[in-house]
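Hi team,

Filling in the usual template for the complex we talked about on Friday. All components are listed, including any nucleic acid strands or ligand strings, so the model treats them as one assembly.

SUBMITTER: L.P.
PURPOSE: interface mapping
COMPONENTS: two
RESIDUES: 481
SEQUENCES:
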Amino acid sequence: MREILTISKLNNYVKNLIHGDPYLSYVEVRGEIINLKRYQSAVYFTLKEGDSARLSAVSFNVKAFPATLKDGDEVLASGRISVYEKSGTYQIICHDVSYYGLGAKLIALQALKVKLEKSGIFNADRKLKLPKFPRVIGIITPKDSAAQSDLLTNIKRRYPLVTIKVIHATFQGDGAPLSLIKAYNTLKDEAIDVLIIARGGGSSDDLWAFNDESLIMALSNKNVPLISAIGHEIDTTLVDYLADVRASTPTAAAELSVPDQNELKQDISTLEMRLYSAIISKSDSYQVTLTNLVSRPVLRNFNEIIGNINVSLKSLSTSLAANTSKYLNKYEINLQNLSERLSRAILKSTNQVNEEYTHLNASLRSLNPANVLERGYAFISRGEEIIKSAATLKENDHINIQFKDGVTKAIVSKGEQDE
Amino acid sequence: MSKELNFEAKLARLTVIVTELESGKLSLDASLKLFEEGNRLSKELATELNEAKLKIEELQVK
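RESULT (copied from the run log):
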């Protein structure tokens, strides 16, 4: 007949059996934490594997138990399996509990981010400004990616003046950071003005390469602005923190990197309009100057002025004529109106100046004393004084008679006053 | 002269020319010269944009 056991004896037997098993003296087990309870002397929790299995756990190493661990966290627990005789349950007595998988990566990432932030490489004062008119853009992207075609299509549409240098890299997996570093090192030796690293969206696990410290350190030596177009807004990677500008998509990166040719064409048209307006108003103002000149008292420096006007008129006519014919037929449709104004103004200006010159010349001729003398008149002076009236002359005055061909000196034999 | 300038420099030069002309301080002769240069630049800029073809080079990792 078999011995009837007490429960404590049975539990003690099982406990000894388990304690004697070398395999169970140290195990590593992974699971999700639930029912976490912290006490001064111990931390109790349950490890759960989906809905299929649970394991009680306790840690007496309270100080080493991660303070941030909470229900729902995926952990790796190591320790020995033991039996709690009072309840007849077995449990793991943990030496060590730590984040597992994404949890561990996130903790490490947080620590790395803090470290890099302290080093200053993410600081706003280190951000480089994007050039307005880049000549060469370097692009690192996965081979045959939607990101590459989005970038090229949009850059081509906006600003085809640029040269693109594309290099392909692996963006996922363990080899990705090194592949990205190599791609960057190759591009670094090219004379690029902007660097774009672009990929499509994906699960955040696919972005781990962009949190790699060696990649960040390699990129931190860059001397051109970096646009990151790596993932969605919510998945900010360390490369995004390092980037000078962050784009939400490859298309947005294209738009940030180059100006829009439609806007540029508009700017050029506006400048052209202003250019034509300025020259028209210049020719208008020159017309005014000539008009002013014509109405000035000009007798004093007659020859000089005639000479000057001749020269100005000649050069004005020449340059106006040359430029009128040169530009008349060249205007764009949107400038047609302006062009007509310009040519009208220039022609008007030339014609008017010609008329005014003719008129001026005629009036100057009629006023020129030399022309009067030419017709057989003479004038009389006494010293510097021009004699305009017989009343001013008296007997024995020495006078000069100015003919067209010379001066005759004479003495007055009888003045009007002398009678 | 403008042959050697790139797009950006040409656009900057055109802007300077327009501003100078608009100031009205230059002689007619100088104004016409600038006008001529500006007109040429604006045509060249438009042509460059219209005729540009995106150049794409594929590099291999060293």
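MY TAKE: Confidence is low (pLDDT under 50) at residues 328-335 of chain A. Residues 261-294 of chain A form the longest helix (34 residues).

Thanks, L.
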